[in-house]
Amino acid sequence: MTGRTFSRRRMLQSTAALAAAALAPRTVFAQQAVRAPAASLPARGEFLIRGAIVLSMDAAVPDLVAGDVHVRDGSIVAVAQKIQAAAAQVIDGAGMICIPGFVDTHFHMWNALFRPFVRADVPALGYFPVTARLGPLMRPEDSYRSVRLAATDAIAAGITTVHNWSHNTRSPEHAEAELSAMRDMGIRGRLAYGTPVGMADDAPMDLAGLARIKKSWMPDKDGLLTLGICSRNLGALTIGGGAAATSRGVLTVEQIKRDWDGARALGLPITMHTSGASPITDLERAALLGPDVQLVHPLLTTPEERAILKARGVSYSTSPQLESRRAAQLGVIQLGELLEAGVKVSLSTDHIASASCDPFSAMRTLFALHSHRIGARVPLTLKRLLQLATIDGAVDLGIADRAGSITPGKRADLVLVRTSDTNMAPAGDPYEALVSFGLPSNVDTVIIDGRVLRRAGRFTAFDHARIVADAREAAVALRNKAGWPT
Ligand SMILES: [Zn+2]
């Protein structure tokens, strides 16, 4: 009797799912996507990474020249030179460096699908004009496809956590689409709920929609997803010309306070770009800074402002690949100054519409810029760079209790990097190998929350060609809808 009832319920659910799937894409996310299990992801099993160079990023867990990492049901059980685990599936780590997955603390996944159109060297086809023109036309389905595309690139590069900075949240359904894509890809991360591209500066962000998303998605049953907001800018922007100013917003302190107060009433953290004159003094005067705030692009801070950031526990995310393209008068990456002042710093990609998704390159670029400008005065080790890209990112996002290092008891977000490839062999010091030589193509295995999502440089559960084709189709349709370029 019980079985029959269960079957009947299952059948009704299937019918409802089919009916929902038959509807237009716009309604799919409203009716179907919320908190459905990620059925296509691999199961979390028990395995033993054997004989890898282990870089733990935890002062209490020594690095190992050749060691084992034991994982069961998504958790790191043990890290030691030799572990016996008869029931575990063995993953041979010989010739590999095992690191915690990279934590990317600022990534606009919604515009990854514009990659075919953006040109880094043609201002009219630059990132800001393209996203300002096509962003307003995006439907939730387009956001879903873009986030899936971005997630494939992130996972392949060894990024296991992403702060998905959605500054084109056109509706709660768009947010739901982005969360659904993150869930379906099995990536850990925070969605920063934002505002639509092109929204009027005096319009408040959709706090009711935000509250609805929080209620239906948080806390995430799977433990992978969290929620926050991304704020529009305070004061004028100095990059992207008019396209950036009109599409991303230029708010007053009062308008910023209104949005931030709303987020804080929901207990949600806040992130904001600082792409122009530094807003830190104004934010401090308005008593808006705290440990729940992350700023992005640390280029123009004063010593007094860095002291404020330290005192308030504010984090700063730097995106070296794209910040290093900015004109010199717009500031330099102040990593040395921030570290000297004791400010929390983390690393990010920003976007992949015209930059590669490559945390190795981000570390390498940051090291080069730092050495070039200030390295003689402020020493920086390669190990510190890997910390910035892993555990410090987890601290920034408030998830260091479960991610960012290879620590027994934490969730298993692990990456194996081959040292036998032509660009790295014969490898010496593993930090040197990763920062000076590493490429995403060296990433062999990626495990997120105990699920093996990539093995031997291939996805275990995703049809990459299909994800690319879906993204391209959506991008071309948006361009046609805009009649652009004309
Ligand atoms: Zn950004």
Topology:
Blueprint lengths: L1 H21 L2 H7 L14 E9 L9 E9 L2 E6 L8 E4 L3 E5 L1 E6 L19 H8 L5 H17 L2 E8 L5 H14 L2 E6 L13 H11 L7 E7 L1 E2 L6 H8 L1 E2 L1 H13 L4 E4 L6 H6 L7 E4 L6 H10 L2 E4 L1 H4 L11 H7 L2 E4 L11 H15 L8 H8 L1 H6 L17 E5 L11 H8 L5 E6 L2 E5 L2 E2 L4 H19 L4
Parallel strand pairs: 1-4, 1-5, 6-7, 7-8, 8-9, 9-12, 10-11, 12-13, 13-14, 14-15
Antiparallel strand pairs: 1-2, 2-3, 5-16, 16-17, 17-18, 18-19
Bound molecules: zinc ion.
Structure overview:
This protein is α/β, with parallel strands linked by helices and 486 residues long. The chain folds into 2 domains: 46-100 and 406-455, Urease, subunit C, domain 1 (Roll); 102-396, Alpha-Beta Barrel (TIM Barrel), CATH 3.20.20.140. It has 17 helices and 19 strands. The chain has helices at 2-22, 25-31, 127-134, 140-156, 172-185, 207-217, 241-248, 253-265, 280-285, 303-312, 320-323, 335-341, 359-373, 382-389, 391-396, 430-437, 464-482; strands spanning 46-54, 64-72, 75-80, 89-92, 96-100, 102-107, 159-166, 188-193, 225-231, 233-234, 250-251, 270-273, 293-296, 315-318, 344-347, 414-418, 443-448, 451-455, 458-459. The strands form 3 sheets. Strands 1, 2, 3, 4, 5, 16, 17, 18 and 19 form a 9-stranded mixed β-sheet that branches. Helix 9 (280-285) links the parallel strand 12 (270-273) and strand 13 (293-296). Mean pLDDT is 92; it is low at 1-28 and 30-38.
Number of helices: 17
Counting DSSP E segments of at least 2 residues, the number of strands comes to 19
- For CATH, the homologous superfamily of the largest domain is named as Metal-dependent hydrolases
- Pick out the low-confidence regions: 1-28, 30-38
CATH architecture of the largest domain: Alpha-Beta Barrel
User: β content, as a range?
Assistant: 15-25%
Domain unit count: 2
Distinct bound molecules: zinc ion
Question: What is the structural class?
Answer: alpha/beta
Query: What is the CATH fold-level name of the largest domain?
Result: TIM Barrel
Ends: how far apart? 65 Å
- How would you classify the quaternary structure? single chain
CATH class category label of the largest domain? Alpha Beta
Average pLDDT score: 92
Shape: globular
Rg measurement, Å: 22 Å
